[in-house]
User: What shape does this take?
Amino acid sequence: MEPTVQSLVLLPLGLGLLGFIEPCTIGGHLVFLDTQKDRPAAQRGRAVASFVLVRALVAGLFGALIAFAGQRLIGVQTGFWLIFGGLYLLVGLAFLSGRSGRILPRIRLAPDSWKRARSPHVLGLAFGLNIPACAAPILFALLGLSASVGSIAAGFAMMAIFGLALSSPLVLFAMVPALAGRLAVLGDWLRTRRWVLGMIFVLLGAWSIWFGLFVDPADWANLG
Assistant: This one.
């Protein structure tokens, strides 16, 4: 499948921002901001920018690896639209039924002790390799799409954009620490309204399945 503006930029950008406001992701980001609060403002800005870039690089490398595998192992790549569409539907229904905690995995590929470091580079690796439960469905679904684009460069770009969107708002919160409290309030608000996220996932899943069943990828590419 040829990458398009929608699949290469808009979808990972939107999903990254959605991942940023996930309640358990907000909690991790508040922990990160707390490790940097004692730095002077200029140093804090550079540290957060380094964190964002390292985390985006880790995400991009994941996308390149999956796209590399997809070139060799996947025969019908458009089937990935159906796969991650089904995943979105299941996750959305789990949120709506209040059972998301039972099916959403947390993936740890780096020691949790790394998250207590002050180095933004180490923290970027830690957050890039440790996937919180609520963000795992977004990441896995986007990795599935990365495998379908047929280009290692496109897979890297797609996931790097996702990583940037997932973390770049932290620059604002680091430079204006008073906003961190509002971020915590947003997390608490969403935690009691998981149906909002559930409906977003259900709509994304329905769109993806419709795309996989009824849209010719060649026609879609011509629109990108």
Residues 5-223 form one domain. Residues 23 and 143 are 21 Å apart (CA to CA). The longest strand covers residues 107-108.
